[in-house]
C-alpha cells in the first residue's frame, strides 16, 4: 500500500512538472524562426487554402523582418491572402499600404488591381454567382468605388497582365450601377413621378455610356415624355430608339457577366 502511494505521488509530481514547464514555455518569449521558414510556411498554407494561417506567417515576416529579403513579397501576398479569406477591408487596406510604401515596385499594378477588386465583392458568393441573383437593387456604393478604382488602374497600367480582368470586372460593375439607377426609375414610374424617372434615365445615358441598359433607359424616357405630353422630346427619343435599336431589343452581351476565374492565376512572383 505504501509503495502504491509513493508511485501515485511520483506520477502526480511528474505531471505537475510537465504542466509547469509547458506554462513557462507558453508564457515566455516565443522562439523566433528565420525569415525563410516563415515564408515557406506561408506558401504551404496558401497551397492548402489555409489563408488565415498564411496571414499569420506573412504578418510575422512583416513585423519581425521589416527590411528582410521577403518583406516586400510578404506584403504583396498579404493582399491576396486577406482577399481569399473574405477579409475585403483588410485586403483593401493592405493594398493601399503597399502602394504607399512601394510606389515603384514591379508588382505595383497588382496592388492597384486588388485594391479596386476588394472594394466590392458581394457577387463572389457561390449562390449569387450560380443563380445570377440580381444585385442592382442593393447598396452599390462599394460597386461605384470599385468601378472608379479599377478605372484608375486601367488608366495607370494599360499594359498590365491584369488589365483584361479589370476590364471584364468594370463592364459588370458598370451594368450593375446602371441597373440600380433604372430600378429607381422604374419605381418612380409606378407612382407617376415621371420627372424623377427622367432624371435617373438621363443619368444612365449621360454618365454610364455603353452599358447594357441604354435601351431600357431610352424606353423609360419615352414613357415619361409621353405621360407628360412632352411631344418634341418624345419624338426625339423615338428617333434615337429607331436608329439604334430597330428591333427594339436591349443589348445583352456575354461580357456583362463577371467571372472569378482570374483567381486561378498565379500571384506575383518575387522580384528577386
Radius of gyration: 28 Å
Beta-strand segment tally: 0
Which percent band covers the strand fraction? under 5%
Estimate percent helicity: 55-70%
Number of helices: 12
Q: What's the mean pLDDT score?
A: 82
Head-to-tail CA distance between termini: 70 Å
Let me know the largest β-sheet.
Answer: none
**What does the overall shape look like?**
elongated
Secondary-structure element series: HHHHHHHHHHHH
Index terms:
272 residues, mainly alpha, 12 helices
Describe this structure as you would to a colleague.
By secondary structure, the protein is mainly alpha-helical. The chain has a domain at 175-255. It has 12 helices and no strands. The chain is elongated, with a radius of gyration of 28 Å.
Which helices and strands appear, and what pairs or packs with what?
Layout: H1 2-27, H2 35-47, H3 51-64, H4 71-84, H5 88-101, H6 108-118, H7 126-131, H8 141-156, H9 163-190, H10 194-207, H11 214-228, H12 231-244
Helix pairs in contact: 2-3, 3-4, 4-5, 4-6, 5-6, 6-8, 8-9, 9-10, 9-11, 10-11, 11-12
In short:
The chain is mostly helical. It contains 12 helices and no strands.
Amino acid at each position: 500500500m505504501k509503495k502504491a502511494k509513493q508511485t501515485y505521488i511520483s506520477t502526480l509530481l511528474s505531471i505537475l512538472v510537465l504542466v509547469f514547464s509547458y506554462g513557462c514555455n507558453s508564457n515566455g518569449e516565443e522562439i523566433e524562426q528565420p525569415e525563410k521558414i516563415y515564408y515557406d510556411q506561408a506558401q504551404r498554407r496558401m497551397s492548402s487554402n489555409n489563408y488565415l494561417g498564411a496571414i499569420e506567417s506573412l504578418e510575422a515576416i512583416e513585423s519581425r523582418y521589416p527590411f528582410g529579403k521577403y518583406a516586400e513579397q510578404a506584403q504583396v501576398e498579404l493582399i491576396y491572402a486577406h482577399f481569399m479569406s473574405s477579409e475585403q477591408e483588410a485586403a483593401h487596406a493592405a493594398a493601399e499600404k503597399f502602394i504607399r510604401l512601394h510606389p515603384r515596385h514591379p508588382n505595383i499594378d497588382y496592388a492597384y488591381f486588388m485594391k479596386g477588386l476588394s472594394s466590392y465583392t458581394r457577387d463572389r458568393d457561390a449562390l449569387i454567382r450560380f443563380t445570377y441573383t440580381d444585385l442592382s437593387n442593393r447598396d452599390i456604393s462599394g460597386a461605384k468605388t470599385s468601378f472608379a478604382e479599377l478605372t484608375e488602374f486601367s488608366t495607370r497600367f494599360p499594359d498590365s497582365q491584369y488589365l483584361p480582368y479589370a476590364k471584364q470586372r468594370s463592364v459588370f460593375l458598370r451594368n450593375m450601377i446602371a441597373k440600380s439607377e433604372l430600378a429607381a426609375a422604374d419605381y418612380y414610374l409606378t407612382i407617376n413621378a415621371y420627372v424623377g424617372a427622367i432624371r435617373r434615365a438621363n443619368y444612365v445615358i449621360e454618365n454610364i455610356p455603353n452599358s447594357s441598359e441604354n435601351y431600357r433607359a431610352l424606353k423609360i424616357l419615352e414613357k415619361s415624355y409621353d405621360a407628360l405630353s412632352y411631344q418634341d422630346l418624345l419624338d426625339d427619343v423615338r428617333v434615337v430608339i429607331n436608329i439604334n435599336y430597330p428591333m427594339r431589343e436591349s443589348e445583352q452581351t456575354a461580357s456583362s457577366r463577371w467571372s472569378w476565374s482570374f483567381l486561378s492565376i498565379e500571384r506575383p512572383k518575387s522580384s528577386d
